[in-house]
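Below is a filled-in request sheet from our internal design queue. Each sheet records the structural input a requester submitted and the sequence that came back. We keep these sheets so that new team members can see what a complete request looks like end to end.

REQUESTER: design group, bay 2
PRIORITY: normal
MODE: inverse folding
CHAIN LENGTH: 287
BACKBONE (tokenized):
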């Protein structure tokens, strides 16, 4: 056995020493079985970016998605500039008539109306027959003394029953008692001096109410000479009642020819009153 091995070694050595010519390529052997999968190799480097492709055609519009929930309210925006005024629109058609409402509660009594204006002078009446001659006077002067006295009729007193809301106004005593030298005008209530001298004046009026106060001024050429108020003559007991107290005043004035004197009532919710027991009168004469 050892010899045999020795021979085989010798033949191998001789075959290694002497190489023969290559033989023809043999036929491919049968495919061997798939070997076991090797371990994953390391990640390679990123390759260069490719060229941008062409834009593809626009796709069809998709279906509308469901409505999302309302978002939170944003902060108020800055006020914008005021826009131009629009043109006036056409008048709309008249609406139907509404149903009649219920009758409201009765309102409080309103304030007295404004002072009425004095009416125009009526036509002169028919001249009466001359009266019998009077007895001869005893005056030393060839002319009568300048004097007048007049009272207020009820018709005129009604015009002065409420002086609220009116400017100061002259008081007209329309019913003449005495008027020598025709120095007193019953329509305006003015006395005009026709002879220079000292004159005595007095007046007597009745306020319509005890309160509020009624003020009357004796005026000479727009200047107040005497002011009398009904509040100064009222006691606490009379002021709380509905009864009024007469208001009187008197003074002496030096007048020149052409000077005018009259009574003026100041604005008040009070007014004048005349009844069968009391008159309002204005008197004046030269001393």
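RETURNED SEQUENCE:
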């Amino acid at each position: 056995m050892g010899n045999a091995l020795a021979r085989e070694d010798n033949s191998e050595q001789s075959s290694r020493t002497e190489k023969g010519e290559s033989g023809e390529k043999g036929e491919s052997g049968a495919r061997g079985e798939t070997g076991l999968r090797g371990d994953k190799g390391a990640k390679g480097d990123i390759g260069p970016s490719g060229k941008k492709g062409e834009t593809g055609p626009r796709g069809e519009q998709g279906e509308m998605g469901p409505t999302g929930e309302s978002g939170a309210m944003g902060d108020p925006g800055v006020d914008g500039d005021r826009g131009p005024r629009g043109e006036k629109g056409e008048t709309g058609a008249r609406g139907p008539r509404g149903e009649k409402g219920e009758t409201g509660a009765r309102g409080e009594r309103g304030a007295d109306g404004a002072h009425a204006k004095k009416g125009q002078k009526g036509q002169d009446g028919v001249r009466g027959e001359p009266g019998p001659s009077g007895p001869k006077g005893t005056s030393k002067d060839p002319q009568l003394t300048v004097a007048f006295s007049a009272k207020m009729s009820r018709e005129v007193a009604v015009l002065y029953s409420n002086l609220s809301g009116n400017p100061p106004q002259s008081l007209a005593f329309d019913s003449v008692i005495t008027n020598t030298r025709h120095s007193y005008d019953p329509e305006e209530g003015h006395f005009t001096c026709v002879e220079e001298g000292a004159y005595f004046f007095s007046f007597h009026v009745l306020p319509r109410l005890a309160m509020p106060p009624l003020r009357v001024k004796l005026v000479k050429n727009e200047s107040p000479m005497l002011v009398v108020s009904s509040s100064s003559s009222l006691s606490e007991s009379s002021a709380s009642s509905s009864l009024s107290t007469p208001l009187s005043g008197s003074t002496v004035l030096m007048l020149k020819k052409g000077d005018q004197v009259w009574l003026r009532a100041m604005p008040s919710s009070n007014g004048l009153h005349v009844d069968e027991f009391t008159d309002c009168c204005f008197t004046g004469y030269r001393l």
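SHEET NOTES:
- Helices lie at 2-17, 154-159, 236-239.
- The chain is about 10% helix and 20% strand.
FILED BY: M.R.
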